[in-house]
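Entry:
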Amino acid sequence: MSFALPKPKSVTTEEVVLSREDWERIVAVLGDPAAQDDFEDDADDIATVAAMRADDARFAARLRSERGAPVETTIPLEVVKAKLDGAHPVKAWRDHRRWTQLELSSNSGIGRDLIAQIETRRKKGSIFTLARLSQALDVPIEALTEDQGR
């Protein structure tokens, strides 16, 4: 389900004024049983991202202790150029690793067809899917997401 927040008629430090139509739409969405499932899915996604970030932090701390200095995160020029040329981040990182879609599928447990759909932007991929791909590609999950403006 997709839901865009309405634009308030006015906003003060004490209140926000919405049109009656916008208010009723919000109430309808929040009361919809399907919306409850979406909210639970969102909570699961938030927990997954938090767990991935915690893993990244532990990994960075381990590297920092082993090397005695903080580790800089860099993005290879090849990946930057591919993304600037319009490639999806998953494809840019997969190409950087010189993997086929089948190899990424095998390494991540995500179906090759879904990887192809994500790379061609026919599907976005769930947080779970992107987390599995990011682990296989050994990059933070944020490296595989696109700006909303795209």
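The chain has a mean pLDDT of 87.
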